[in-house]
Amino acid sequence: MIFAVGLAALLVVLVSVVKFWPQPSSGEPQHRRGATWVVIALVSIWTGLNSFTSISVGSTGVGVRFQNVQTRAYTEGVQLVNPFLDFHAMSARRQVIEFHAGEKDKVNEDVVSLSSNNVPMTIDVTYAWQLNPRYAWWVYRHMGLDDSYRNSLIKQVARSATRAAAAKFTSDEATTSKRNEFTLEMEKEFSDHLVADLVRQGLPLEDAKQVFIVLPIQLRKALPPEKVLNAISDKAAAEQDLQRQVTLTAIARQEAERRSNEGLGVSKLFDELPKGFTAEQIAMVVNALANKEKADAFMKAVLTGNVNTMVIDGGPTSVQVGSK
Prior knowledge:
The chain has 324 residues and is an alpha+beta fold.
């Protein structure tokens, strides 16, 4: 449109020069002819400048001629074009839309979805896509430039995809046990919803699948309400305490069995000793066994580095440490 307006203005000037410039009298310089050639040169330069367009890196151009959108894909670089075309740049790079859980100051607000067990979850996720340059003209014709189709299509589809995927998982699965499956399901729903929307706008199914390249999404958080989180924490703490009690019970059981075995060993020892031992002699045997057990325990503690200082009292359980 700018070219057409400029060209029309130059043509008006040219007609004015030819038609209304006064005829030169005999012997006067040919000013009208010179002015005419100047205007013709300007028209040629203006046409030449508008016969080329430069598409920036990472963009694709959409050509429009008198409100008629051209179906050709104009990729990056300098190209020879119809000078009557106007060009609108659209991004062909990776683009994202983010939903920030709990960050109300963000431009892209959060999204809350119900899980299959009816627990509302706040989802913090990033959806990514690329526009196929071959279909940039169609997107421009039906939805406008990047910001326009982003708000009217991408954001709404991303919300629907998140809610549809969340409804297939419980809150526990989406948060922990099936987090990867939940992420892949959101990506699939995002792609399916995009295709379905484009088909409803009149694009054939096979073409609709190629308009947008859906890239892997990034799931950062999927959080149930604080009350549910507290309940989960309490449950985990109770399970840990129960496990601790089970472990302590097993230790006590093993300790009881050990002491029982020790008693049986002592009883068997006395049964095999010759008859006629006095009570004092029996006490000496029991003390010797106890002292042996204590000495073994001390030595084990020293060897494992659990004892830094030891007082030697000269008793029957003394262990000499560090002597040469």
